[in-house]
Amino acid sequence: MFSDRPRNRDHEALMRLALEQARCALVSDDVPIGAILVDASGQVIGRGYNRREADADPTAHAEVLAIREAAEHLGSWRLEGCTLVVTLEPCLMCAGAILLARIPTVVMGAWEEKTGAAGSVYDVLRDRKVNHWVALYPGVLETECASLLTTFFRQQR
After folding, report:
1. Which one, of 58, 53, 64, lies nearest residue 96 by Cα?
2. Taking a C-beta distance cutoff of 8 angstroms, is the pair 63, 79 a contact?
3. pTM of the predicted model, to two decimals?
4. Would strands 44-49 and 83-88 be described as parallel, antiparallel, or unpaired?
5. What angle, rounded to 10 degrees, do the helices at 9-24 and 62-74 form?
6. Could you give the CA distance from residue 106 to residue 64 in angstroms, rounded to a whole number?
7. Which of 30, 33, 108, 136 is placed for a possible disulfide with 62 were both Cys, Cβ 3.0 to 4.6 Å?
8. Cα four-point dihedral sign 62, 26, 153, 53
9. 141: closest CA among 133, 129, 149?
10. Could you tell me how far CA 128 lies from the centroid of its own chain?
11. Residues marked as catalytic
């Protein structure tokens, strides 16, 4: 389900931090996707950007790296009360990690029409068959998030 609460300026400010992370991926020619995780007070406790190329690791997605850092920071795999902010709709692997970490809220930038698992292709985060549901705030700074990706892929061709 989409959240009943409207997006707010805090979401946009947090998405700008995630976009900063996404730009870090450009150094290693990784797809520029960024993520941050904040605790209930709004403090950033996890950051990540795609590092698949840099680390030669297929699981080095921005969301997974941010989740790992946040879990280490908290000393717990349960990230209840936290919010994940990511520049692109999570894939199946990342959606699974979000559910397993018990993250209750995801703020998302651009949609991923080919592999998205938060409503585009699959809707894992809001599937009532699983034991954890996520409030999703899609489309936050969507144009900026999509533009960064479009520019990257245009330059790759």
Report:
1. 64
2. no
3. 0.93
4. unpaired
5. 110
6. 13
7. 33
8. negative
9. 149
10. 21
11. 63
